Amino acid sequence: MRHSVLLLSLASAALLSPVLSPLWAGAGAGIRNEVKISTNARFRTIESNGWPEETPKFPRRGNPNTARPQHYQFRVPMQPRAQDHPTRAGGYWWGVAVNGVPFEPGTGETWQNNPQSGWRYEAATGFLDLGLDEHHAHVQPSGAYHYHALPVGLVGQLGGDGETMRLIGWAADGFPLYSGYAHKIPDDPKSPLSAMKSSYRLKAGNRPAQADGPGGQYDGRFTQDFEFVPGSGDLDECNGRTGVTPEFPQGTFYYCVTAAFPFVPRFWRGEPDQSFFKNDRPPGGGPPRGGSGPGPGPEGRPPPPPIQVMDRNRDGELDAEELAKASESLLQLDQNKDGKLSEEELRPGPPPGGGPSPGGPE
């Protein structure tokens, strides 16, 4: 109960408190969950060691990696902006939980270990044992513990699901992330809570027969087995919607973690902050739709913010139409609305520590 109260205080008070530095004990090994959240007018900064309240029991079957504390410094915009088109998650941590543990929806495992095949295994559908624990998490080769679906232990410590909307984290674009329940009527805080249903479904029939593909029936083992069907569920292609929440009584766009695919969202509604960039190039976790998200620049770094906001279709190039709208796009970087772009506004955010390295489950 003590853990639940402390975590609940973090989830709600972090919206208002300029500095909040809770510390919770993790069982065993003497390692403790450490997370500090501070806010200013522009950003919410989350510093953590990425270690959950429950000690990760790794290595384990399906995952040979040993969990180790990390050093993260994530920042999310205090006033996130929804874009006209979603951004596919890829190359970044998708977001971070209120306990400082990151979310990673996609995996590094591919059919016949061939990334060029286009067929990427899903972590949470049960067809490939990637060593997920009871909290739907596992460990990358770097020792980074991360969630692929609902963080069961964290939700329990926050008070459980279904009684009220539970703020469990923040996406890299700054919009809040909630657990699986939200108000049945999005704009009515008095409407009952309902388990949110995603708008993705399994494709019908069989995968195309091809020399470099797995064939067989669409059964959910691969990310590409799913398709987005607008209006078939409660949520959009980003696994989110706009409505009121306890922390945002005036309404906001928010994401949900669902019980079925995509589990953790595979797209951002806004632009991810550079602090979530992982310094590797893991593939995106969403079914094909539009571009592939902001790609890395020289030496594996992401492109500068001006290039990212101008590249509207996320194809890694600036075409004539995008150049013609460059002034409009660059205004997105004007955080203080003074009509000018300062050096700070043009500069990428600090990269986080503890990025994963290749060679094991992701």
Per DSSP, what share of the residues sits in E-state strands of 2 or more residues? 15-25%
> Helix- and strand-based class?
alpha+beta
Helix content: 10-25%
- Major beta sheet, specifics? 6 strands, mixed
List the SSEs and their pairings:
Layout: H1 2-13, E1 19-20, E2 23-25, E3 32-39, E4 43-48, E5 72-77, E6 87-88, E7 95-97, E8 102-103, E9 137-139, E10 145-147, H2 152-158, E11 167-171, E12 176-178, E13 181-183, E14 193-195, E15 200-202, E16 226-228, E17 240-243, E18 252-256, E19 267-268, H3 305-310, H4 320-324, H5 326-330, H6 343-346
Parallel strand pairs: 12-18
Antiparallel strand pairs: 1-3, 2-3, 3-4, 4-5, 6-19, 7-8, 7-11, 9-10, 11-12, 13-14, 15-16, 17-18
What does this structure look like?
This protein is an alpha+beta fold. The chain has one domain. The chain has six helices and 19 strands. The chain has helices at residues 2-13, 152-158, 305-310, 320-324, 326-330, 343-346; strands at residues 19-20, 23-25, 32-39, 43-48, 72-77, 87-88, 95-97, 102-103, 137-139, 145-147, 167-171, 176-178, 181-183, 193-195, 200-202, 226-228, 240-243, 252-256, 267-268. The strands form six sheets. It has a six-stranded mixed beta sheet. Strands 1, 2, 3, 4 and 5 form a five-stranded antiparallel beta sheet that branches. Strand 17 and strand 18 form a beta hairpin. The longest helix is centred in the N-terminal third of the chain and has 12 residues, at 2-13. The radius of gyration is 20 Å and the shape is globular. The chain starts with a helix and ends in a 16-residue tail after the last helix.
